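sanity check this record:

:::
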Amino acid sequence: MKEDNFDEYLASILNKSGEAVKTEEKPDGQPAEASEAAESGEDIADFAEKTIRLSDGETKKFVNTHTEEPKPQKIIHRKIIRKANYSAYGGIVMATLVLCCSIVISLFAIVVGRDFLGIDTNNNVTTLYVPTGSTLADISQLLTDSGIIEYPGVFEKFARLRIGSDGVIYPGDIDVMPSMSYGDIVDSLTVMREAHETVTVTIIEGMTIDEAAKVLEDNGVCSASDFIFEFNNDIFGFDFETYVSSSSLKFYKYEGYLFPDTYEFYVGDSVYNIVKRIKERTSEILNESVIRRCGELGYTLDQIVTMASLLQLESGKLSDMEQIAGVFYNRLNNPSEYPKLQSDTTYRYIENVIKVNTAIDYQEMYDAYDTYVCNGLPVGAICNPGADAIHAALYPAENSYYYFCSNVETGQFYYAESYDEHLANVELAGLSV
């Protein structure tokens, strides 16, 4: 069958089919006769039969001609949503926590173990007095406050286990060291011992370190030279120590920090123990409020102690110290006109301490202490001031004086605003310029 003939034949069949499916209404509204539909059905059947008889080539040609090419399919990408594996995260967090806790516990065990065995600690001997009736808790705290142990609770529990219910702790003096193990300390507590001999020593306001060391040696407490060396070189961790100047022009670094007081020491006690006792007392005086007040005045603690040492040697009376402090601060606040404090007290330190203890002349150090040479305050304290002198340095009297002098015999002080007034006061005091 030719292609043109086939197209005409197909069109005629389709037209007939389309007419066959239409319904004609008769006047009474009834559908057309069923025979017409049957006739249309026969034509379609005839069309199907003829189509089947088409040759393979014609069929393929017919299909290729009238079949539309398929459209490309749209690829739909579905987003894959993965649910978080919270159980895995929880396991990781838990494992991390367990590891951290294990590390902390291990470190704590190491630190406590070192203290328990006294590893990497010093051999400085400390003599402690155990009062009658002291409990293990009291003794544990005493050892902690003295720097012998760090964990009083651990020591107390260990001591209970070691001593037992029948153990006895004897009162009295006991020599202990940080390097001792807990076991050695407990054993020492259970040994009956005699009380150490004690001696009462008074350090007077205005004494130098040299003078205080001699008093200690004279009372059998310790060697003067050993005390001087230990006092100026060992650091005990007190707050005031961090404010002390380390100038190379200072003769004694800690001159001024040996607080004058009455102390009770053991005869033949260790130098470490003696120095620690004195610096503990000094730390009580030079506390946080004093350090804060120094900042309010615009001076360092070292400068205030130096000022107090000058006041201590100028007068022993608080009211005079406060007035003299006012004079010194007026000069310090007006350095262009009054650059030097001009206190005679510094001569004594140069002559009686520095020159006595040095084999060669050290003019630069002499000048650093001489208030007629150096500007402002000297490089360091020239004695160990008492509480009144420290108070006067912290709370000076408000006045307008720049000069003062005193009558050596009566102790009366004269103050002046100008140099001419000062010359008149010098005559009143019986002094010569």
Observations:
- The longest strand covers residues 126-130.
- The radius of gyration is 53 Å.
